[in-house]
Amino acid sequence: MTALSINLNKVALIRNSREGNYPDVVEFARLCIDHGADGITVHPRPDQRHIRPDDVRRLADLVKSNPRSGAAPELEFNIEGNPFAPALGSYPGFIELVEETMPDQCTLVPDGDDQLTSDHGFDLTSSGEALKPIIEKLHSLGMRVSLFMDPDLKQIELAKAVGADRIELYTGPYAAAWGSDQLDAIFQQHLQAAELSTSLGMGVNAGHDLNLHNLGKFATIPNLLEVSIGHAFTVDSLTMGMPQAVQRYKALLV
What is the Cα–Cα distance from 114 to 94, expressed in whole angstroms? Predict the structure, then answer.
């Protein structure tokens, strides 16, 4: 079954609109976990527009103190972000924060401070060599490494070459094509990318703009291991409550 990892960035964004710690990101993470989420995802940026370094530390402690029991998979903590993001003020630098908090999975994303949100995967023809030692370092610390990728077959072959354990397919174009005559072609691109990744021995994750309308179709991709959902999940939680939102998303995963 595909794991559901809840991205809590938008909860932090609401919190940051006022002074203090309300809503508390950790309390909402606990609510997601209690109602069946398989993991928690955060994307800390140097400008601290939403998730802050101390949120990452507290969430790491929460996840480590809530192991699953029996046959259920272990609860996982996933930190995603730009591996080249430097220290800025109280932000210690992305890799430094990852080393400190030791997530189960580190998802490397080529985003910049001027981007509203992540909107493309890595071009490994230009960044692959710089990523190799970073991936090796994270591996030495016992972390799984996923690379945020477009469904480009040549790029996915390069992801294997630089040492990625998984890819996270950027699903923004798939979501944007929902309801259009371009949807099937874009879905096939993602399907072929996932099949290639699996054949190369890499796992497949996915994320960006997946929601209750488009997730079911995407979840039919074989060997899809994890989806990370935040924006739409937060919006749905406003109307139906977070516990029910977790259950509705879980019901769509196969």
Answer: 16
Q: Over 169-234, what HEC string results?
A: EECHHHHHCCCCCCHHHHHHHHHHHHHHHHHCCCEEEEECCCCCCCHHHHCCCCCEEEEEECHHHH
Buried b (16+ CB within 10 A) or exposed e, 80-113: bbbbebeeeeebbbbbebbeebebbbbbbbbbee
Cα–Cα distance for residue pair 67/142, rounded to 1 Å:
17
Cβ–Cβ < 8 Å for 169, 205? yes
Q: What is the pTM of this model?
A: 0.95
pLDDT digits (tens, 9 = 90+) for 170-220: 999 999 999 999 999 999 999 999 999 999 999 999 999 999 999 999 999
Q: Is the peptide bond before 151 cis (omega within 30 degrees of 0)?
A: no
**Tally of CB atoms within 10 A around 254:** 11
Q: Which residues are marked as active site? A: 43, 80, 208
**3-251: what fold?**
TIM Barrel (3.20.20)
Q: Report domain extents, the chain.
A: 3-251
- 72-122 pLDDT, tens digit each: 568 999 999 999 999 999 999 999 999 999 999 999 999 866 655 656 789
Cα of first residue to Cα of last residue in the chain, in angstroms, is 5
